[in-house]
Write a structure and sequence with these properties.
The structure holds 2 protein chains of 2 kinds. Chain A is of the alpha/beta class. Helices cover 36% and strands 26% of the residues of chain A. Chain A has helices at residues 45-52, 82-88, 103-113, 119-132, 136-139, 152-165, 182-195, 208-214, 232-237, 242-248, and strands at residues 5-16, 19-30, 34-38, 62-70, 73-74, 89-92, 170-174, 200-204, 217-222, 225-231. The radius of gyration of chain A is 18 Å and the shape is globular. By secondary structure, chain B is an all-alpha fold. The chains are: A alpha/beta, B mainly alpha. At the A-B interface, helix 2, helix 3 and helix 6 of A face helix 7 and helix 8 of B. Bound molecules: adenosine-5'-triphosphate and magnesium ion (MG).
Chain lengths: 253, 287
């Protein structure tokens, strides 16, 4: 656990109106590590993930207390530009959500809104991102076709490429493989292991084997609270709480 | 009759009624078009389409009215489209649901229910007299523009609502600002729908008589407009004039039907263009 701390939440509490969805979460994320968030449906994993890059800002009644730190700086601080935060903390959603644009324009989107216009640079970076997301070989001859013409697994890797294109520092993934078949899932998992070398990765998953396979740290959430967090092997071999053990062995949830 | 038979019968009856309604609507349209065509096609020839009226409007053509209706409709769209789309963007993307937005919506809905002659009087009072634009293309376009504004706003809001929230989230998560998201993702995705809805507005603007009667339409002028401050003839008003105000109402029946036929053809033509544009945009979907 010697890696540098990249992100952290300190006593973070989250409300949807009067409903407390997250209660006093303190958690750290280190560089070049994969942290898996597990827990039963509705326990607040997505809410937690989305508050890291302030995607919950678009929900009118949402309210955050406590701190979310990125390189030691509060993401919700008064002088922080939310757009900058989202460029540094990228996100891949549960359902693949490509734009109805061409494959090229889809990946180039984030670059263009950053103001990059040079065709050569766009091409180079789109290609590099598609390669990093392990989908280049499948799409290199059809970059001008609609992104919607890709299969679900390809779309999800395209969305990962799109997120990587803007060179974020942290990548948040909300069940990125839940809609995919085993082969596409395996590809995404290999990809995540590869991406770990350059990024800080936080991933939500319902698949215990997946969490065990790809993550370094696992955090178990239950009813809006962080129950236990530890090295993944520890969580899956000798968790310190019975609640955690029951969940990962499928005895409740 | 057992339960299953009964269910099948109900199903069959419901289907029959629903299908009949659809057929009746199409029939009504076909009959109306057929009627216009039979009554009016003899009037239509090259002279009719390219010449001004002659001999106290008992002979000659309707060219100035075609030109006038074209300008008025175009003007109405230039007024209503940007304003309507902008309002819809505000209501759907920016405004936070609350009393103010509810009041604005109520206002828009009521605007849609205001009789067109009231718009005419409003235009007369505001544009023609108060702002001093006179009876002109400008006054008429503004009046028609306000008339079709609710249609454009409604259509645009529907289209914006139909854009999946996931598109917005994807753009924001990539560091897009709200405006970048709207301009580069939401609007392109909504445009086909906005256009379809706006077609209805175009048809309405081209066909209205009352709003232009006091604000733009000339009884007779052979001169084509040279600026937006000129009066123009317009097809619907021309029909109205021929059918009610002349001394040759009976003799000019075929001209009235001919003019109506041209008006209908014009509106359907514009609709067709918009439909083709939309289909092509939908097919591409790769902006
Ligand atoms: N926009 C919202 N408004 C109000 N309540 C919400 C909203 N989104 C989520 N919630 C509530 O917050 C709680 C946590 O939801 P969240 O989506 O974070 O759960 P999750 O752990 O991601 O579940 P899942 O595994 O099913 O995706 C749930 O009780 C949910 O009903
Ligand atoms: Mg979730």
């Amino acid at each position: 656990m010697s890696n540098k701390m990249k992100m952290a939440t300190k006593n973070m509490t989250f409300h949807y109106g009067a409903f407390k969805a997250l209660d006093d979460i303190t958690l750290e994320f280190r560089e070049n590590q994969v942290t898996a968030l597990i827990g039963p449906s509705g326990c607040g994993k997505s809410t937690f993930l989305r508050s890291l890059n302030r995607m919950n800002d678009i929900i009118p009644a949402a309210r955050v207390e406590g701190q979310v730190l990125l390189d030691g700086e509060d993401v919700y601080g008064p002088n922080v530009d939310v757009v900058e935060i989202r460029k540094r903390v990228g996100m891949v959603f549960q359902k693949p959500n490509p734009f109805p644009k061409t494959i090229f324009n889809d990946v180039a989107y984030g670059l263009r809104i950053k103001g990059i216009k040079n065709r050569g640079e766009l091409q180079a970076r789109v290609e590099a991102s598609l390669k990093a997301a392990a989908i280049w070989d499948e799409v290199k001859d059809r970059l001008n076709e609609s992104a919607l013409s890709l299969s679900g697994g390809q779309q999800q890797r395209l969305c990962i490429a799109r997120a990587l294109a803007i060179e974020p520092e942290v990548v948040l993934m909300d069940e990125p493989a839940s809609a995919l078949d085993p082969i596409a899932t395996q590809k995404i998992e290999e990809l995540i292991r590869e991406l770990k070398k350059s990024y800080t990765i936080i991933i939500v998953t319902h698949n215990m084997q997946q969490a065990a396979r790809i993550s370094n740290i696992t955090a178990f959430f239950y009813m809006g609270r962080l129950i236990e967090v530890d090295k993944t092997e520890t969580i899956f071999t000798k968790p310190s709480l019975k609640q955690t053990e029951d969940y990962i062995t499928g005895r409740f949830g | 009759m057992d339960f299953r038979q009964k269910r099948k019968l109900v199903e069959a009856i419901a289907f029959f009624i629903i299908r009949s309604s659809a057929v009746i609507i199409c029939l009504a349209l076909a009959i109306m078009l057929g009627f216009l065509f039979v009554k009016g096609y003899r009037a239509i020839n090259w002279t009719f389409l390219t010449q001004p009226p002659m001999d106290a409007m008992t002979r000659g053509g309707i060219f100035p009215a075609i030109v006038g209706t074209f300008y008025l409709t175009l003007g109405a769209i230039l007024v209503a489209f940007p304003l309507g789309v902008a309002s819809a963007i505000y209501l759907n993307e920016y405004a936070i649901e609350g009393r103010m937005v509810r009041t604005i919506r109520l206002g828009i809905n009521n605007l849609a229910g205001v009789p067109s002659v009231v718009f005419g009087l409003f235009g007369l009072g505001l544009f023609v007299v108060f702002l001093g634009f006179g009876s002109s293309i400008l006054s008429g376009s503004l009046t028609l523009g306000f008339l079709i504004l609710p249609v454009i706003i409604g259509a645009s809001e529907e289209a914006l609502k139909a854009v999946p929230q996931t598109y917005r989230e994807a753009s924001l998560a990539l560091g897009g600002t709200k405006w970048q998201t709207i301009y580069r993702v939401v609007l392109p995705a909504a445009l086909p729908g906005i256009l379809t809805g706006s077609i209805l507005g175009i048809g309405r603007a081209a066909g209205e008589t009352a709003p232009i009667m006091f604000t733009a339409a000339a009884f007779y002028t052979s001169k084509l407009p040279s600026s937006i401050f000129d009066e123009v003839m317009a097809l619907p008003y021309h029909i109205y004039v021929l059918a009610t105000a002349g001394t040759h109402i009976e003799e000019t029946r075929h001209l009235q039907y001919g003019t109506a036929l041209v008006l209908i053809a014009l509106v359907l033509g514009v609709n067709l263009v918009a439909i083709i544009m939309r289909t092509r945009m939908r097919r591409k979907q790769t902006y």
